[in-house]
Structure to design on (414 residues):
């Protein structure tokens, strides 16, 4: 069994942002030289997500509006977590969108459907944060 | 390390439907001959889910009502994604229910609790769509 | 490839409770003697979650309030699942928080960001329930 790992850094310029990281993950997979196995991609921070969906700007706008409805940022005083911080909503949004994805590796490629793309979902940005890529297989 | 993969096709007759696919996954596991490892089951489409819960029709009705409350299909014009399409709500519902499950394989069986069953959750159906089964182990 | 499995039992004294199980999982990892691989931690019950977030009591209070808003326990008669049972809301809450986490194992340790902690999320407690730990790797 072979294994590979890499930590990728991202810095969103806004508080909330969805970043397509599919090409970064493709690059890791090539570097690993693993042909059959599983790849785990997870946020290393608890106010961010890694998820798979569509790279379509209208949909990304819909996610922003929807997540703000389900778990609004303001008023920040509505959350007990917001004593010294103001990011409680980001901890909630991350649970809806998920921490991680596990993707099959087949013939050295991400075994994806036509429209699957991997996103880093930032909900408390404007600072550097990490995503972990771990691959195991042969 | 051994690996196995199969793409399963499903066609829901309605827009939204929950299909128990546990026996399909059991069949794949037997076919793989893998006794110890991990099995990944994921939707290959971004308007569908694979998740684990109860095979109880009352609960499935509750999921339908609840998901329509959290992310209503209509009016379709409320979503920017719905220019040429009308499935934005399906992309949202899929995030609540999840893309994939990872299940332990022990002694050649799905290592499950008493009531765990695997479902394909369709939120934009009436066409053929795929689920990926990937198993690694020994 | 090596594999390891253990079922852990938890009994929450209240209906809903979040229990930090990181040290239990650390102990399993040491016992497995696996240095590189993946660890799966999942609830074996369909009214409970395993998830990763912050060990901060204010945030846990926020999760309680938020999940009760998204999927209220009462009135129990609002759910069709609640014929003989009263836990339909727990099946819904568990979908928001998730069934499982997959964590990378690197150099014999959980490959975690600074604030990542693993929680058992109980939404229908006051009875013994199980969490499965499965590790594969070398």
């Amino acid at each position: 069994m072979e294994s590979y790992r890499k930590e990728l850094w991202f810095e969103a310029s806004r508080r909330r942002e969805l970043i397509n990281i599919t090409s970064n993950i493709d690059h890791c997979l090539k570097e690993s030289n693993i042909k059959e196995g599983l790849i785990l991609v997870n946020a290393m921070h608890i106010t961010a997500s890694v998820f798979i969906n569509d790279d379509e700007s209208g949909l990304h706008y819909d996610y922003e509006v929807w997540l703000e409805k389900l778990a609004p940022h303001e008023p920040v005083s509505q959350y007990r977590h917001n004593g010294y911080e103001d990011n409680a909503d980001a901890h909630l949004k991350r649970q809806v969108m998920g921490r991680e994805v596990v993707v099959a590796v087949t013939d050295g490629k991400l075994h994806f459907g036509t429209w699957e793309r991997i996103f880093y979902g930032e909900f408390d940005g404007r600072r550097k944060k990490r995503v972990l890529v771990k691959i195991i297989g042969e």
About this structure: The CA atoms of residues 18 and 70 of chain A lie 17 Å apart.
